[in-house]
Amino acid sequence: xxxxxxxxxxxxxxxxxxxxxxxxxxxxAFLSYYKPANFVEEYHWLSSLIYSxxxxxxxxxxxxxxxxxxxxxxxxxxxxxxxxxxxxLAIQLVGLIVISFVSYLPRFTDYIFAWLLSTASLVFxxxxxxxxxxxxxxxxxxxxxxxxxxxxxxxxxxxxxxxIDETRRNKNxxxxxxxxxxxxxxxxxxxxxxxxxxxxxxxxxxIIDYTGAQEVIIAMSKISQxxxxxxxSLLNSCNVRVRRMPLIEEMEGPNDKRIIDxxxxxxxxxxxVVLDNEATYEMLNGKVVMVTGAGGSIGSELVRQIFxxxxxxxxxxxxxxxxxxxxxxELTRRIREEKIKDIQLVTLxxxxxxxxxxxxxxxxxxxxxxxxxxxxxxxxxxEDSPAEAIRTNVIGTYNVAKMADKYNVQKMVLVSTDxxxxxxxxxxxxKRFAETIIQYFDxxxxxxxxxxxxxxxxxxxNGSVVPLFKKQIEMGGPITLTDxxxxxxxxxxxxxxxLILQCGLFAKGxxxxxxxxxxxxxxxxxxxxxxxxxxxxxxxxxxxxETGLRPGEKLFEELLLDTEHQKKTENNRIYIEEKESVNKNxxxxxxxxxxxxxxxxxxxxxxxxxxxxxxxxxDKKE
Length: 622
Prior knowledge:
- 47% of the residues lie in helices and 14% in strands.
- By secondary structure, it is α/β, with parallel strands linked by helices.
- The strands form five sheets. Strands 10-9-8-11-12-13-18-22-21 form a nine-stranded mixed beta sheet, sandwiched between helices. A seven-stranded mixed beta sheet has the order 3-4-2-1-5-6-7, with helices on both faces.
- Residues 1-7 and 248-262 have low confidence and may be disordered.
């Protein structure tokens, strides 16, 4: 049987100490007024003893009623001290009133001096005992910390004070605050919680160098996302860990959060995209919606956001059972907990390149909208398995598009990629092929509107660099980069999916929508930020090494966002690429691409693909 150590109950000790203190101070006050001889001969000692003893008994009782003994002494502050002072004053005032009416107690005129002296003493001494306990506790914590991390706090405000208090009272916290940094000129040069205030924040790199700080905590709870990104950018070149306190809008309910790490939105160094999805809700509400690749990173988030619009039927279709089961269980739990009765959830396993299976599902459920996210997306893997990329990304898209036309689906939206622009890899080439399929069917279909959405990388998705880098950090490094100059466009998964749904709303037929991904992110900067989030220092604790570009990989991905020539939509983050001529030979190209399934050499398959997609350039790095 396992026994746990019980904490000691100090309440009886404090009660005894409070009673002893009250008794002692009152007796000393009376002695200081009466002459020693008169104190004994005239029996002043007896009346003083009775009165002091009564107050000594009453004091712990009043303190118990006032919940003084529930105060956590090691965290005592000014408000707790004031509560103790007011309680003492109340006891003394009642004592003064009582002594005025009880004849055998000291005379009122005699007691005034003793009352003033004892009241002042007790008001000071009762809270002082507890403050001393806190001081000793802090001293013991400080002396017990063998290795301390020199830390700078940004923000000389209430949140900064919370951080400083946390470091002082928590024995498991090894931060040593060496400076507080702020922009307020009235605070710079002064002391904040007895710590020097330096500034402005724009000089943070110099201050870190001067103090030798190893960690920076951003303690500004009312800061804007834009300003937060500016500060994080200033810290990028400094070999320090960066943490921050939560923003006000991130706090829900009681503020039990302490210091948190910088999140994915912070990695983007820009404000997250916020969309008004009311129109999307109106479009999908009460409709039958099908999502292919529903278990993937994009597909599962599509499912979540579509679920929030309350479609009449939501069809989850994927070849991979495990992740599809997880999203099914998540939504089933929501249906149960939220008592949702107007959504039919249908989860089906199968492949989009199985034409019979695709037709069977679309024929049975007759979806109004199809979001086609099923695809192979991993660039290096598809270089080694090009036939499978064609099977899923090309033939799979063809099957879904064909059945959407046959069974009068209102809209079909393809999830594409920036790698489809002047592709140098199989994955990009097959996705470009898929885009031509969408535009072909839009030109021949009488009932269905087709569109494609092209965007860059998604932070935190399966196969993205963020999960990979985190695993490498957990293993002690190094982080491997194919090239330190490589840049990519990034969005968070919810951002990308919200824009995909908006594109479905804007689709009139045949468009390739291009998402404004903001400024590209240097992967090297991303790796360095993740290392700092883990509390480590780049190139000191975790190294970053280059491995060379992989087959089919570019230094720079292209979205071809040309705001001057491309058509702008109602949403300022979504543009439409100018339409190219539709491939009238698509049906014969599909048959031609099927020859890849009988080929043994990957080089031959790539040559076949290049003959069908003229913008595809086979990578020579293999």
